[in-house]
Design goal:
Layout lengths: L1 E8 L4 H8 L3 H13 L4 E5 L7 H15 L4 E4 L3 H7 L11 E5 L3 H13 L3 E5 L10 H17 L7 E4 L11 H15 L4 E5 L10 H14 L4 E4 L3 H13 L7 H8 L15
Parallel strand pairs: 1-2, 1-8, 2-3, 3-4, 4-5, 5-6, 6-7, 7-8
Length: 277
Amino acid sequence: MIIIGAQINTSEHEEIIDIIENKDKKRLLEITKHQLDLGAEMIDINAGQRIKTEVEDIAWMIETIQSEFEIPISIDTPNQEVFKECLKKHNNNYGRPLVNSVSGENERLNKILPLVKKYNAKVVGLLMGEEGIANKPTERVKVADKILKRTRELGIKDEDVFLDPLVLPVSVDTDNPLTTIKTLRLIKDQFPDVKTICGLDNISYGLPERPLVSSIFVAMMASAGLDSFLVELSNVTYSTIKTVEMLKGKDDMCMDYIKQYKADKLDIYKPGKMEVL
């Protein structure tokens, strides 16, 4: 699974707003490194709370992060102008950028997908249309047909499209997790060449011990075939991810799991680290 670190988000963390306002390169790089140390293969950046300066803010963060780390960036915004200006700043030698995101809405498809093609990016396709998010998995998957029709017309390969079945909080509706999983399975059945992705932490919104909830949902989504996810990485989620990869047969002779254990990266499960209830 492709792990995308999602901690650099002004909507979730006031600290990120402060970092941007002060152009605090050191703190931005520390947060980035922390995510990379916990297994992130791509960094998602979101400055949605700063609408007036979003283009400049995203551009600064891309240049700052890639000046220190050879890592691709997921540009997370609904703003076409951000993609138009900031995809130019991305160093594709470090991996291709991810446009996060388009939806099934005509305006977004028409304005953003040509930029995906122009800058050789990958793209997240949210399974929501003109009328919002459908409740039924079969209705959500209909949006995938529309998105893929447009990407294929532009010559964007299916494997460069990451369809998002949409994760909504379990605290709002206890059916939400299973709806997402059913939608994911339909995507994998109907569009085998397309990748899948989700914003994992949405599932635990409004609940205590969010990393615990997210880590369990990692395992559930992985069993349904999820390819990638955005997550605020913690020792709990990282340990879960490494265990899931091993149990799915992605870790030859369990060597990576053992390596991570010896490096104290699975330390939440070491003796003395867990309380006896």
